[in-house]
């Protein structure tokens, strides 16, 4: 914006001064988009997930509990001596139905190993459980805990969501 201002002086000629006014406008952030930063997201950071089939959703990790009571210890056959849980939420942001499950979730360790969910559900597993297989309509969400067999003395560094047809997303697990 350019304005012209006329100022008075002691002489008979008016002085002209040009003034430039700049207005700064900040765009509102997209609530569904992941924060722009390098590395894993932080808990409660929501990210948009777009799949190859054109569906879209948001995903977020709400909390992590390193040792959680389950029906019994998972045992070495499942890969751990304790249960850990991640409380997660996935919401359908598109118009087509989407399927959600515990299967795309895992925990990763600093040494490069990872633990996937066992697929165990029901009974005395930590509640509320994230669904094993559920169809979500438009604007619907699923929320609950996904249980992982872990070693009580070894804490993971991240929780990873690898949906079919989408890019993997990672959230950092805070140090104890």
UniProtKB/TrEMBL annotation:
Ranges for the region named Disordered are: 23-61, 100-135
Residue spans with biased composition (Basic and acidic residues)?
A: 33-53
What is the recorded name of this protein? Answer: DUF4352 domain-containing protein
The record lists the organism as: Streptomyces silvensis
- What taxonomic ancestry is recorded? Bacteria, Bacillati, Actinomycetota, Actinomycetes, Kitasatosporales
